[in-house]
User: Fold these one by one.
Assistant:
Number 1:
Amino acid sequence: MNAPFFKFGLFGDEASLIVAFVIGIGFGFFLERAGFGSAKKLTDQFYFRDMAVFRVMFTAIVTAMLGLFYLAAVGWVDLSLVYIQPTYLWPQIVGGLLLGIGFIVGGYCPGTSLVALATGKLDALVFVAGVFAGIFAIGEVWPSITGFTESSNLGRLTLPEVLHLPMGLVVFLVVLMAVGGFWGAGVLERRFAASAAKEEK
Amino acid sequence: MSLLRLDRLSRNQKLALLAVALGLGALVLGGPRPGKIVLDERELAAIVEGEVDHVTPDELADWIVAGRQDYRLIDLRTAAEFAEYHIPQAENVAITALVDSDLARNEKIVLYSAEGIHSAQAWFLLKAKEFPAVYILLGGLKQWTEQVVFPEAPGESAGPVERIAFAKAAERAKFFGGASRAAAVAGPSTASAAPGGVGASGASAPTLPKVVPPPAPAPGGAAAKKKKEGC
């Protein structure tokens, strides 16, 4: 039994929707359990008062990375079949900045806004309405901006290819980066939470 | 002594330690060894026998009408034949260029040729290259023409199910620039040899539509083939 299951035809298109639904619900559940259904908790990240977003995201990255690496090492996952979003350098930089601005202004990212909406938050309702308005607007102007959105296509890039390093070394470095980041996050939190408490007084 | 220290660590710290240990292991391993996937003849034979690698013209037509973009449709005929007529969304790749084309192994690939022999051969070629999701359009362009572009009305003895299916097919044929045909009971009355027909495949079928129906993008544009995968 080899993975990715869908690519090896273990289930078809219809079943894949059910699988996606189950995974999506699970994703939302754990986002909520991490406290990401609250815009307050999420925006605290940008003031370094609460680094939960950073911790959760990096933990997920490290877990998935180690899992994929070892499953591929024993031959259960064919990494060449795992979909990798192609790199469109400039469009993705601009898109990332736009998402960041929206995140700071609105207090949510797209996934967490839906989680917050599911828990009945009114600000999330406004945010999701904005998301759909944005989707509609970009859909309308899309044909006129494809010149930019399809520029600087670097294809399917991975860190080992870009850095010319063995995959195992990259895995190790990312783990070190994460653990170092977790430690640094604690330092930042203690400092900024303290100064924020002082301000409030 | 060291056990005692481990006890004092929080659960999160232990997990971080485990991650570092696994990272070190990865460092030692270096990278996933290039696994040698052996071509299993019996498995291939079972796929052929079970006909699970087929896409019927009806299925493909529904995909195109629905605007699905999660597959690549490859036309294996010559460039001249391709220019004359091709199924919307199709890309023209010669069988000799197939292995060096930009097809990725994580894509769903549907192959078609005039009748199906070439696509069956190309199927084996790609399977040997370890492409997991390769499909053949059943009956090739010939069956596509007969079933989708110019669907034939069922005979007088047809039941309601067949009639409904035909009504749907006739409606769909318009989308592909074709039209339905009367039942072939009387046989092809006119010997109007289709001048624009696709070789031998268009023997009894009327002229294939010259112009590619509107939903097809400019053929051959790799940039136009956007995949809807990932988040």
Number 2:
Amino acid sequence: MTTDVGNGAAPAGSPEQPGTVRKLDRVVIRFAGDSGDGMQLTGDRFTSEAAAFGNDLATQPNFPAEIRAPQGTLPGVSSFQLHFADYDILTPGDRPDVLVAMNPAALKANIEDLPKGGILIVNTDEFTKRNLVKVGYAADPLEDNSLTETYQVHKVAMATLTIGALENTGLGKKDAERAKNMFALGLLSWMYHRPTEGTERFLREKFAKKPDIAEANVLAFRAGWNYGETTESFAVTYEVAPAKLNQGTYRQITGNTALAYGIVAAGQQSGLPVVLGTYPITPASDILHELSKHKNFGITTLQAEDEIAGIGAALGASYGGALGITSTSGPGLALKSETIGLGVMTELPLIVIDVQRGGPSTGLPTKTEQADLLQAMFGRNGESPVPVVAPQSPADCFDAAMEAARIALVYRTPVLLLSDGAIANGSEPWLIPDVEDLPDLSVTFATEPNAPDGTFWPYLRDPETLARPWAVPGTPGLQHRIGGLEKADGTGNISYDPANHDHMVRLRQRKIDGIEVPDVVVDDPSGEARVLVIGWGSSYGPIGAAARRVRKLGMPVAHAHLRHLNPFPKNLGAVISRYDRVVVPEMNLGQLAMLLRAKYLVDAMSYTKVQGLPFKAEELQDVLADVIKGVSE
Amino acid sequence: MTATELGLPTVGGLVGVPTTDEPQKAKDYKSDQEVRWCPGCGDYVVLNAVQSFLPTLGLKRENIVFVSGIGCSSRFPYYMNTYGMHSIHGRAPAIATGLAVARPDLSVWVVTGDGDALSIGGNHLIHTLRRNVNLKILLFNNRIYGLTKGQYSPTSEEGKVTKSTPLGSLDHPFNPVSLALGAEATFVGRAVDSDRAGLTEVLRQAAEHRGSALVEIYQNCPIFNDGAFDVLKDAEEASRRIINVVHGQPITFGGGDYAVVRAGFGLAVAKTADVAAEDIVVHDAEDLNLAFALSRLSTQDLQHTVTGVFRNTARTTYDDAAREQVEQAKAAKPADLSALLHGKDTWTVAG
């Protein structure tokens, strides 16, 4: 029996028959538990199942900065939200339709996000007096009617059931209980008709060296599935059909992985060895982890003694003719400033990846923010312009990394690549590009003297790009010295001449201003919008989703999303001038808005939020609707 | 976590760097830039010694790179007709590390000073030495900040009166050789700027060493710390103070009148006449404990100063190992970009 499409909430007044299957167009599930409960793994596996089934999807992990905060406490709650649908979606979802809470802390931390009528699945075994007191519950919320009146509550003794299912495996109670996350995954997999072969294969591979643990997890997973199938406490199951995505081969990918692959591809397409000089920092470390696995592509990863040494090694490698890369987050970018300045002065290719997180200072290491834009633009002494490129989604990190490499190599400059925590850890399907279609990034090193006097001038520029020649050590006859002191135009010798300094400062600025970047594309299906919303980076999803929603309400709105923050696309000024109102939502206090106001004298309206979490489509929908109404009045 | 035995052979410091049969002269290494150190600066002497020494290596000039930080000595690369980078304060070892890792065909030299290497760049120095990157680090120690016009440095003596310490410096100084040995340096030497032969010998051994070589050079700043090492330049004083060590030879000095002997866990100086010949320590550059004890014989007041090569021992270099990992990975698995991008779990949407 199948019924209507909806968000999963039971239609009022119609008790469901067991065995009912309802078709949904999209579902948001949030797995929440203690940070030791394996929620990230659970979410990740469900994501893979959704991907294998062909849904479009987007995910958002949310975890504490502490590796293992005290067990059962609110600071220790870790969650993973997954949005999957039968159409192309843009965000991990504002609110969950289904909340899986593995303990009282997870319930308390997440219940407010669950809309009325939502499905709540609770692991009752953790609802002990002690655990309830730990998070401030005076009484067990599962005992009174407060939850059942508002939500569709399913109480499941997941730990007990898991231990029971593993009774004959010889595994100790404690080890058996640890598999309860797979029980939860099994139950949810049953509820949503997910394929299971992939998860069983994954578990056997993951625990290949501990076959008993592998089998225990598979058994727990099946136990969860069977529990749903046999107990009839779940009357309804749900189907979300595969999405109609563009033709091609897809995989699921996180932003950090896609970014690392973009770097690998940039190395291959440029024919240069890649040297990553870096220092571990959340949320950028996974880029180092990923690249360190791919040395067969001529990639050297160097975990340096600090952030400064990381970028120093990258710049030294670039000087030697490699593609130098450094990866960090905001606090590390602050430490790298001086070396970026040296890269600006010596005009060497360099990619500086900043996976932004909440700041200032140590801030919110595991949460997202976009507040490093002005640091990227201006966070150096002197006039020190650098191009700034930002990916807009996890999969887009691949293209953004290759674009950063193109600019660095063509224009011989450090490039700032601004990802953020939401993109880095979030995932989505990626239409895998054909390697044949990737851009050619090959470079030409200087091999001959270039100056009229028959010598080599390291600062004699390409008239088109204003890039200086890249003459790597080992090239006979081109011996030269570079450094941080001001250069005489052309010869590159030290110069303290006032007019030369003025000339060189302007020349370096002109080089960056003149970088060829694609025009910004405006999404305005009706062509009637009077309001333009401009975003950059990871807000692409929520802004895009909000724009769709207001359009459905009959209000046209235009959306432009900036990949290039410096230089801006050449058509941006003209685009802005076409609209009555420009709205700029940012996870900072208005940094892009400040740049747009300064450059285009536009009275851009800034909408800002810095809660360490991505925008919700719902809130941006309200913001845009208000502005559109204001313009129409 | 598991550890992997890298099992790399050790080779000479210059293996992999292209050589030339064309005879070279010191002037081939002079750039067209005017040297702008103060008259009487010890840096001139070191520059001349290096320019005279490099031709003896027979390397292609274009395969030699000098990387420096900030400070008077860090102007050095501008005066060398090789490749060079005058970088930023304290960071030369980090930049040179990236260069050395990327390019096995280069002979990479770092020129730094006591402030550059031991204050702002102290972290990079110790980690470079610990990793044993194939770099030759020339640490010009004049015990003062020269370029900023005369503040005390991390090698200045306690109580030193300078512009920034009118009542005397409160800082206890580093002994750079002890520091380098503590940082697991595989090669540590010391020379005095005015001793061309001694300096050249240490440079020669440093160049031949595969791995990080730290060479401390006592260098006079005639403007802000003039005469800091004068007692080592007076022939009679020097004879009583300088203990030059040579691998495999008994350590004596002062024309053989004095000798170095063991004392507890350390070393002491004795009159040769007062000790048995077998009690005189024979220098062994492979012995870290001996090297460290020798470094402790050198005192800030220069009553005794050990010169020569304290330690010279073979250990796998970071850059060789890093390249080897890449080569092994390449041999084990082809660079198939398409396969990487596809990974294990894909699905296909038909048109």
Number 3:
Amino acid sequence: MSDYKINQELEPVQIEVDKYRSYYYAGASGDFNPIHLDNDFAIKVGLPGKILHGLCTMAFVYRTVMKNNDPDKMKKLSVRFRQVVRPSDKLTIKGKVIEKENDTVKIGLIAENQNNEQVITNGCAVIVVGT
Amino acid sequence: MAVDTKFIGREYKPTTYVVGQEKIKEYALAIGDLNPLYIDPVFAKNSRFECIVAPPMFVVVFAKDAMEVLFADNEIKLNMSRLVHGEQEFNFHQVVKANDTITTKGRIKNIHQKNNNDFVELETKSYNQNNELVVDGLWTFIVRG
């Protein structure tokens, strides 16, 4: 993780949200809001059906930037949840180096679904580069 | 009805969470992040951390309790059926390790209105057992008008 250049694009990461992901994530995170688990309930409150937790998508964004690197190098991560993510969506997460100073780089990030709709915008990661 | 701006600055009672090794593993599997530092005790023991560490986004597991305190606040009374998570920011200061005891303080940083929607910003600061700040967060919720 040392040779980032301004405007360099990260290799896009594709993640297919499996059908049961929101259940796994609910159990692991403790967020059991029924909009993530119950189709009927989600529709009743105006959603297209049950949706994935935004913070789970944010964790996918983290993976895109960091892969298996030392987690201590991630200093900041921020996102805007632009649109809901649904089970079986196919996400593509893209990043681009937008700033570089001393030992940190700033990466701009977005996530799109299979319909080319942006589900995450204004993503930003600040990571420490080098050793 | 607009969320009253008089609640800006309100501080909530801190919440405490003990980080378990198996809970970290469960979370890492749920987000599909298979970094061995999170799931392989032998690998992690031989790393510079010398034990299993939590993925940075594990912050949601312990800081979420502070969010729930906001949601349960009977005075501010956020309309949960109109509420969506709009934005999220985390600043990571230190890696969280298995068996850390994390205390999170929540505070309403701002409330403002835009296009008939209410924006409620919750700031969280999470400290470990040595009183070191490990992560702070800014959670922006939108109550749709």
Number 4:
Amino acid sequence: MNASAVSVAAAVREGRIQAIDGVRQALQRIAATDKQVNAFTSVLADRALKRAAWVDAHPRRARMRLAGVPFAVKNLFDVAGLPTLAGSKIEREAAPAARDAVLVRRLESEGAVLVGALNMDEYAYGFSTENTHYGPTRNPHDPARISGGSSGGSAAAVAAGQVPLTLGSDTNGSIRVPASLCGTFGLKPTFGRLPRTGSYPFVASLDHLGPFARGAADLALAYDLMQGPDRDDPACAQRDIEPVSPLLERGAAGLRVAVLGGWFRTMALAEALAAVDAVAQALGTTRLVELPEAARARAAAFLITCAEGGALHLHDLRRRAHDFDPMTRDRFLANALVPAAWVVQAQRVRHWFARHVAQVFQTVDVLIAPATPCTAPTIGTEWLEINGQRLPARASMGLLTQPISCIGLPVATVPLWGMNPAAPQLPIGVQLIAAPWREDHCLRVAAALEAAGLCSAPVAALGSGA
Amino acid sequence: MDHSAYIEAAAATLGLTLTQEQRKGVTLYFGLAASMAALLQGLPLTPADESGNVFVPVPPQGQE
């Protein structure tokens, strides 16, 4: 389905289409393409058709801002009646969720219709969605390549035209990396902006939730409708809703934009630099700024992840380590052993970095950096060469996202095409990074780049799914 | 640096049993974490540089 969430909702509100027809269309597209993509781990046809009929009959339908919009969520979101898998085999034994996650409820209250749950790296620990239990999610623009992760199913479902809107999570880059590799728009809001209640945690100090879509207006609309505090997530800020959708038409006018240098250029391949340079040129900036100690910020995020992720799963690591995905098991075991002094130092460096980056934002509104060092590698790739170093390919996908999520900055990721001459069919994403709580800045720039025709998220040309 | 003695002691303390197959990966990934820790130790901090992990007190419902 090629239509945007905004246009589907308008058509349903105005009675030009029925919600149930749009949902049927999404279910048909999923059936026709998911053998190739493997984005979905559950398709909820009965639930979705009932909900669509509810929307069609609802007296408030003409005012529902997401009326009849099919959407899907990473399978770490609670869905009533399903065990929350979080990409694992172990959680298949968990009790079914009693109710939907808060963000699912907020979207559905505005008329959106949940159609399924999406594949991911086990317990969100990875950047490739090469999940051993459920199979790899394949990149819709080249099924031999990874979709990125850990929200690989969320990006692939949007890129494949299965649904116009999905939700994912981002601890170290898990929205921005798959958005980059699958060529979708993605938003990682400020840490603490959206409540995580009813989602399976990975690293409570770093976990964010956010949307994927094929345009900035859809991201902004979904984001606006998901805002608001929730007392059951202690990290969720008690802030009023600050709608962004009405501000998009302002574009990049008046915003001070700069390119991130240092770490964010040395750890990127040519196609990533070409994408950043194209965005900079479109925005008319030649200014280059550096964040102090970005490599150490990445190391801080790495160690906080180790400690909290390892501790969270200690009980199962003791009893049934053999049931973990081989892609994550030895890392979780090693992480459980990390000494406290390393983690405390990481948290102190995190705060140091946040204070110094805040100084940078006194003279700039939006920073530009690649979302990934390169376009999507083929499935099974073990090593990459970046900046003359031979690095593990999967971990390296997060090199440029980790320093940013370490300090919770909001980021819109936008897709560009044709930046890799060896694989011009592949997209690559650029991060538009703003100061905390300024999602409006990064989404305004995303909308401007989309309006200028530089960034787009076309549906992948997939076959009939034979 | 050889971390094998620490890995064995910490695993035993935490009640983790490492198989031979797992021990190779665990050693590799613990070494990677150690290299990250060494990088962090190289940043001079003062006692006033506080943790980025701040506790939020929880008031009784209705008394926020």
